Amino acid sequence: MAANDAPETPEALRESLVELRVEHRDLDEAIERLTATPPDDDLLVRRLKKRKLMIKDRISALERLLDPDEYA
């Protein structure tokens, strides 16, 4: 929910979903590049993977909000 506790519109949720998917894809590419060119920065890779997982969880939550019947 937004800071003012008003429910978000489906359009706003879909827009957030698109933005999160783009960020998730970008993180995936960054992680791949970092691990392909040693020496890789283990701490940075772990942080990026953690961020990517949090985004994936948020994507799943938004998908359930937008289409609850599909996940019932």
Can you characterise this structure?
By secondary structure, this protein is mostly helical. Helices cover 72% and strands 0% of the residues. Helix 1 (10-36) packs antiparallel against helix 2. The mean pLDDT is 88.
Percent strand: under 5%
Overall 3D form: elongated
What number is the mean pLDDT? 88
Q: Provide the helix percentage.
A: over 70%
Number of helices: 2
Q: Radius of gyration, Cα only, in angstroms? A: 15 Å
Low-pLDDT regions: none
Task: Write the element-wise H/E pattern from the N-terminal end onward.
Answer: HH
Count the strands? 0
Spatial separation of the terminal alpha carbons: 21 Å
Structural class: mainly alpha
Largest sheet: none
Short summary of the structure?
With 72 residues, the chain is mostly helical. It has two helices and no strands. Helix 1 runs antiparallel to helix 2.
Key phrases:
elongated; 0% strand; mainly alpha; 72 residues; 2 helices
Describe how the helices and strands are arranged.
Layout: H1 10-36, H2 42-66
